[in-house]
Amino acid sequence: MTENAFILSAGRSGSTLLSNLLNGHSEILSTPESVFLVLMGIKYGNQSSFSEKDYKMISEHVWLRKKELKGSWNQDKTQLLAQLISQQPQSITHILDLIYRSYNGVGNKINPKVIVDKNPMYSRYLKVIDRCYPKAKKIILVRDYRDRFVSIRKNQPFKFVSPGIIRGIAWARRNKVLYKYYCENKSSCLLVKYESLIKNTDLVLAEICQFVGLQYEEEMKDFRLQYKHQFESEEVSEEQQKFLDNMHHLSSQPITNSRIGIWKELDKKTIQKLEVFCSKIGSEFGYVPSQSISAFSKLVVRIKLMPKIAKGIIVAAFRKVSFHLPFWLQKILVNYLR
Asked: Do residues 97 and 17 touch, judged by C-beta distance below 8 A?
């Protein structure tokens, strides 16, 4: 029987690196990023019977969202539909498992014992994951919010996604949700720090393997250096392709701690803004603030950023609501926002 596990984190926290490392295990299938779990989980999560019409709808819309990631799956849509019709799955969980198994890229296994999925957006859809996979293991991966900001500050992958400091301070909201979830579900959650993964890779991977019920394999650490996911996107702009290439470049390189502490290159004002919003929850993970900031200074920083924060909240709310719209309307919106 196959078990499922999810890597939950804010973006640029090392989830792709961890996914690639886990995929080096002979009994773990760790798939590239996708969004179909959220898309299908929302639409079909409460449905208890499925027809051939449903299977056709599902196979047709697997890549309705995040189509630019489709190329890394090397997926045969016709074969997926044939499997759905042949096996007649009558639960969204069974359907999702067949979609995961339709992945045909690097590291694919025919009968994995554990299937791992990751997406930074999953922190907003924990209820969907729990509804579809109530017994799944959750690996909560966290990285110093200041280092993370250095990695994302120049990236604006898609329209209406705020670049710069707003994406940086969004770390607080994402990780506050994940920390609360971890505290409430410790039996099914494992907290992993990016810094520990880098500095003590073997120990952390062994801990994760034990967590998901497997034995650690030494080959895991070097697998991604020999075999890499090919992130060949489809119908995306040159700017988006550049973003995807940059996003996954370091995850397939030799592990180095050179990216730990890179936040010290930031100017004091930027660090102050990040620490105003992120230091409280950051301290729960052991990330010590570098500045002592007065209550007045904190208030000034919050007031100045309020318009941008409001815009970010509205955009995030709109994106979340959009997953509940009919597929045809989602398609129109996705094409417009790209």
From this structure: no
pTM of the model: 0.91
Phi, psi of 4 (to 5 degrees): -125, 145
Which amino acid appears at position 98 of this protein? L
Burial of 307: CB neighbours in 10 Å, binned 0-12, 13-18, 19+: exposed
Cβ burial 135-164 (10 Å sphere, 16+ → b, else e): ebbbbbbbbbbbbbbbbbbebebeeeebeb
In this structure, the number of other CB atoms found within 10 A of the CB of residue 320 comes to: 14
Q: Tell me, what amino acid is at 130?
A: D
Region of residue 12 (left: phi > 0; alpha: psi -120 to 50; beta: else): left
Q: 3-337 — its CATH code? A: 3.40.50.300
**14/277 Cα distance (integer angstroms):** 21
37-50 tens-digit pLDDT: 999 999 999 999 99
SS3 assignment, position 321? helix
Residue 264 DSSP label = G
Q: Using an 8 Å Cβ cutoff, are 181 and 138 in contact? A: yes
Both tokens of residue 41? 């989980």
Domain boundaries, the chain: 3-337
- Answer for the pair 230, 72: CB distance below 8 angstroms, yes or no: yes
Sheet holding 189-193, edge to edge: 28-30, 114-118, 3-8, 137-142, 189-193
pLDDT digits (tens, 9 = 90+) for 194-221: 999 999 999 999 999 999 999 999 989 8
